[in-house]
């Protein structure tokens, strides 16, 4: 299929995904959450190692504990979070020792974010949190690292903020760096 026949559905979905920081107080049905997580389960990973675990937190007491690990007022509105964890011992490691846990998990997390967007949900990546505090709150075993907290819920606004991105010439090189 040529570029002229390209279906813009995926491009439209990517354009609609944004870092949502205000949610309605409506809970996300666990069946809907499972559909979102299925896309993470199906995400590609280096050598198909799938070095990930996902913890869904929607129970109020545990949710409050997670929210204390990232002290920002906007997170209070999130009705649930998914904590994305990496298992470094299960990941593929390149010949030079590079561990691909974070790369693999990033792909799975973006699958979550795009799937959520397609279902009318909002998400955001949070990577700046108290790791040890979160691991303790969720009883995360040694050897499993919390990588990101992903709040998930119905956005409070239907307005998608304007994306501020570098222009194509700033991020793409054809052939080699000039």
Overview of this protein structure:
With 178 residues, this protein is of the alpha+beta class. The protein has a single domain (19-156), classed as 3-Layer(aba) Sandwich (NADH Oxidase), CATH 3.40.109. It has helices at 9-16, 30-41, 60-67, 101-118, 131-137, 168-171; strands at residues 52-57, 80-86, 122-123, 145-153. It has a four-stranded antiparallel beta sheet with strand order 1-2-4-3, sandwiched between helices. α2 (30-41) packs across α4 (101-118). The protein is globular and about 50 Å long. The mean pLDDT is 95.
Determine the CATH topology.
NADH Oxidase
Largest sheet: 4 strands, antiparallel
Total domain units:
1
Gross CATH architecture: 3-Layer(aba) Sandwich
Strand tally is 4
Give a brief rundown of this model.
The chain is of the alpha+beta class. The protein has one domain: NADH Oxidase, CATH 3.40.109.10. It contains 6 helices and 4 strands; from the N terminus they run H-H-E-H-E-H-E-H-E-H.
Present the secondary structure layout:
Blueprint: H1 9-16, H2 30-41, E1 52-57, H3 60-67, E2 80-86, H4 101-118, E3 122-123, H5 131-137, E4 145-153, H6 168-171
Antiparallel strand pairs: 1-2, 2-4, 3-4
Helix pairs in contact: 2-4
Observed structural traits:
single chain, 178 residues, alpha+beta, NADH Oxidase, four-stranded antiparallel β-sheet, 6 helices, 4 strands, 32% helix
